[in-house]
Amino acid sequence: MAALLSERQHRAGWRDYLELTKPKVVVLMLITSLVGMFLATRAGVPWTVLLFGNLGIGCCAGAAAAVNHVLDRRIDALMARTHKRPLAEGRVAPAAALLFALSLALLGMLLLLTFTNPLTAWLTLASLLGYAVIYTGFLKRATPQNIVIGGLAGAAPPLLGWVAISGHISAEPLLLVLIIFAWTPPHFWALAIHRKEEYAKADIPMLPVTHGEHYTKVHILLYTCVLLAVSLLPFVIHMSGLLYLGCALLLGARFLQWAWVLYRGSRPHAAIRTFKYSIYYLFLLFIALLVDHYLLLNL
Question: DSSP of 115-151, one letter per residue?
Fold first, then answer.
């Protein structure tokens, strides 16, 4: 067994290390970071901040994801969705993954301190520690409200992008954080319902495991209503215009429809479909914010 494990680790390639960073998740985070940057200014975003600022944020996000792989390797091995991950299969050793995470974090902090500002760098570090240490290391195993409390770390990228340009925190980027914070529970709980048996097998106290599917579906519906209301606030405070308002209403109504379908149990595979739609929802909502912002500038 030891020889087989050693052979697998020896065969670890760059794709395995890329997988440690959870690239699809990081890309979505960087989209919201980009939107935060462009919303923070009425002039163009300097190319150095655009490139190296997002690269630094991405490196730190990837470092947090790699630590998540290390801490969750036992759980990942028990779940169908994650059992082929590099650490779960033994292709990468925990020590190598932690060294990789540390290297990414140091590179990310260096880029942010060099090309943005100290506030962006320290906020990014706080987000990294919040996800990798507080959420993954403690909250995930301690409470069914793990994703609600820990979701704040994952909601930080638009704030980071905004602060990278402006150098200070204001109400507008905090509102963007609030949107992602409200989006996270219905997004992740839908997946948790779909993977309920696997979370139970891994002894992770996700809401569907501890309180049942009906209770979780009610909370998904309630949080989706909260999300719809919160998503309209950029228009209310004159941060955006009618184009964004229309998009937010349409996208939010569709999300609410999926939450209702999930609650009623009227369609097969509603949980995973709700989860998938939630990803498109967040992407399109932030793109609508960006398009609306530059449309207003040209009026």
Answer: HS-HHHHHHHHHHHHIIIIIIIIIIHHH-TTHHHHHH
Q: What is the pTM of this model?
A: 0.90
Going by pLDDT thresholds of 50, 70 and 90, the confidence category of residue 172 is: very high
- Are 182 and 269 in a shared domain? yes
DSSP-based three-state secondary structure for 93: coil
Q: Which of 21, 11, 16, 10 is nearest to 107 (CA)?
A: 21
The pLDDT tens digits for 143-160 are: 888 888 878 888 999 999
Residues 182 and 157 in one domain: no
Region class of 84: left (phi > 0), else alpha (psi between -120 and 50), else beta: alpha
User: In the structure, what pLDDT confidence band is assigned to residue 5 with cuts at 50, 70 and 90?
Assistant: very low
Domain containing 249 equals 170-299
